[in-house]
């Protein structure tokens, strides 16, 4: 599932970069409008600020380490045994303030968030990958990943876990929990696939 989400991200990246190259080679008048609409859609989805700047697509449309995704799903969903995983296909603790969601059992009275309901675990993984690739809270994750890839190093879940402090209210304890899970189950082997 994570590899599929990563491949979809890379396909969008490839399209965006190829289309941007085409834009620079031709004038805007000669371009296919449906492709331009697709570029705008990708930019909106990934919260790209400079629509015609390739560097932002390179930074935001990239893979999430599989070991990190597995560890976070395990920690957030209790290895798939949590109520949220079973009733909402929610593997990563995503919240919503919209209509469709599960109310947490111990939610404070003054809170209004719900746990987002996904149609499938695949949808939850897709949302997770998009979240790490687009939310401002994970800018350091993307910055570090870009540096690793520019130096042709594999960005493992252990490397990425260090940037996940803001993913959970547990902060540094959460990071340690992710690192422990990745090491205990030797999950970095999935980052090399």
From TrEMBL:
Segments forming a coiled coil: none
Pfam families linked: Glucosaminidase (PF01832)
Annotated Mannosyl-glycoprotein endo-beta-N-acetylglucosamidase-like domain residues: 39-173
Database matches in InterPro entries: Bax-like (IPR053195), MGlyc_endo_b_GlcNAc-like_dom (IPR002901)
Domain of life: Bacteria
GO molecular function annotation: amidase activity
Record protein name field: Mannosyl-glycoprotein endo-beta-N-acetylglucosamidase
